[in-house]
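check these tokens.
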Amino acid sequence: MGYVNKVILLGNLGRDPEIRQLPSGQNVASFTVATTENYTSKTGERIKQTEWHRITAFGRLADIAGKYLHKGKQVYIEGKLRTRQWEDNNNQKHTTTEIVALTIQLIGQANQNASTGEDIVEPLSEPIIDDSSSSSPDDDVPF
């Protein structure tokens, strides 16, 4: 039996991506996306609930995120959930759940470089997919 680990988000960037480099030389982008749900409570009160999601992108996708994504931009993300644990310098254990982005697509009007006002030349109307980490043992199954 196969498994599915897929997340789809449509939201707004909470901050500009932070780009860092792994010891292997591969770039990693970290940023947050906010999704908001509006609903009416049983008492008739309108409720606005915002959920914040941690996003991580690797390689070429990280480079593109660093170049084109900016705080407040609306973005479509497809990825997978990953929970990881680590220990800080004070031997405190930490756990986080994040979404590893496999597809990033900007949504909305024509995009401009915030610093120069120039139109972005590289179109992002097609999803950008970084499938380098998506292989699994089931990839050889013909159905």
